[in-house]
Amino acid sequence: MVEIVVRVPDDTPPWRRAFLAGDGPLGDWSATGVPLDRWDDSTHRTRLDLPAGYEGHFLVTLGRWREAESDGNGHERPPRELRASGPPRIEVDVRGWDQTSVDYHHGFPSRFLPHTRTISVWLPPGYGAHLDRRYPVFYMHDGQNLFDAHTAFAGVPWGADEVAEREIRAGAVPPIILVGVANSPDRLNEYGPQRCGRKRERDLSREYGRFLVEEVKPFVDALYRTRTEPEHTGVGGSSMGGLISLHLCKWYPTVFGKCAALSPSLWWDREYFLRNVAVSPGWLERCRVWVDVGENESSSRLGSAATMRRTRRLTRLLARYGRHPDERYRYTEVPGGTHNERSWGGRFDQVLRFLFTAA
Question: Can you count the helices (H) and strands (E) in the chain?
Answer without folding.
Answer: 9, 16
